[in-house]
Amino acid sequence: MPADVGDWVAVRRLAAGIQRATGNNVRLAYTDQGYTGEAAADTAAAEGIALDVVKRPEAKRRFVLVPRR
């Protein structure tokens, strides 16, 4: 993908590629804040993938380990 393409725009290609590579076995993907919003969620859901957006702490001043959910 070109650098000027937003993450949410690439969701369809990424989700479809993931499902092809895994035989449609992926149901959940942890993503960064670039995939926030209904457009990204709906596009991924069309491929059978739910997105869980992991947000960094707002007051990040040093290295912070973001816990798994």
UniProtKB/TrEMBL annotation:
- Superkingdom of source: Bacteria
- Protein name per UniProt: Transposase
